[in-house]
Recover the amino acids of this structure.
């Protein structure tokens, strides 16, 4: 079998609790459908996919659909690094075309390779760079706190994945005193920042200590605020649901 192309699969990764309930399923399903449409994948209604709770704590669940076999897949793994101070490397951002960039698709090896490169460097996350600007991270969405209190995020057109957890945080930040602006995360913006955070379903909100060995700003305001927003979000019963009607409400 040759190398699988982007249209070989569409997927999303959700957070599951100890009982097998998943967080933000409507938002994940909406994104899954949107990405399938962009990838020209005919996505059927998902069946009653069952997530196994381990009775101990939260896990990550990768839910994918492969059009060639018309098969749904469910794969679980531990959360990993979460709400911690981390070190990052810069790494070339994977690029396909405008329609495909930003979709979670079947040719995900490049994102996995970025994560592995970070680990081989003794770091925790890879910040993905294109045209001299950070456009994404290997498992999360970068957010930069400027000296004036503005939070910068990469524009949608830069090709990063629009994260579900990041959207929750982005919507909450302005009311908490952090206006959010979409603009290029170029070297100058990052170098002068007060703080940089990556936000993801699995990672929560991790504060970036260093990039390629260079120390960033010493503020903790953004990371602490993002963590508080997500903590409230994930403790809200309305955030969680089952994926199969037979399992009840």
């Amino acid at each position: 079998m040759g190398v699988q192309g982007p249209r070989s699969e569409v997927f999303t990764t959700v957070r599951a609790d100890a009982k097998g309930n998943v967080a933000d399923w409507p938002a994940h399903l909406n994104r899954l459908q949107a990405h399938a449409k962009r990838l020209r994948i005919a996505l059927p209604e998902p069946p009653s996919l069952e997530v196994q709770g381990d009775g101990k704590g939260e896990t990550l669940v990768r839910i994918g659909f492969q059009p060639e076999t018309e098969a749904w897949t469910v794969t679980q793994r531990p959360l990993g690094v979460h709400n911690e101070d981390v070190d990052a490397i810069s790494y070339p951002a994977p690029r396909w075309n405008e329609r495909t960039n930003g979709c979670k698709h079947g040719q995900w090896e490049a994102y996995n390779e970025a994560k592995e490169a970070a680990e081989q460097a003794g770091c925790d996350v890879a910040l993905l760079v294109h045209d001299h600007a950070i456009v994404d991270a290997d498992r999360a969405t970068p957010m930069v706190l400027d000296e004036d209190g503005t939070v910068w995020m990469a524009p949608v057109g830069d090709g990063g994945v629009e994260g579900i957890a990041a959207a929750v945080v982005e919507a909450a930040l302005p009311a908490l005193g952090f206006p959010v602006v979409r603009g290029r995360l170029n070297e100058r913006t990052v170098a002068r920042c007060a703080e940089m955070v990556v936000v993801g379903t699995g990672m929560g909100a991790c504060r970036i200590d260093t990039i390629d060995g260079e120390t960033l700003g010493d503020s903790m305001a953004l990371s602490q605020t993002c963590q508080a927003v997500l903590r409230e979000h994930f403790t809200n019963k309305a955030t969680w649901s089952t994926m199969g009607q037979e399992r009840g409400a």
Summary: The chain is about 20% helix and 30% strand. The longest helix spans residues 221-235. The chain has a mean pLDDT of 93.
